[in-house]
Design brief:
The chain is mainly α. It has one helix and no strands.
């Protein structure tokens, strides 16, 4: 999930895990499939708790 059009070392902080095996089918920028991935949900929950 990319909140900006470009994510690189200049626009995003280090330590962000890049999960590349989420299949978004016909919606490559959709957050829906990411939120169905247990690892993504675990990382989000850990970051806000």
């Amino acid at each position: 999930m990319a909140p900006y059009s470009r994510l690189d070392r200049k626009s995003f902080v280090g330590g962000i895990e890049n999960i590349t095996d989420v299949e978004n089918r016909d919606e490559p920028h959709s957050v829906e499939r990411y939120l169905q991935e247990p690892e993504v949900v675990r990382l989000i929950a850990a970051s806000v708790s």
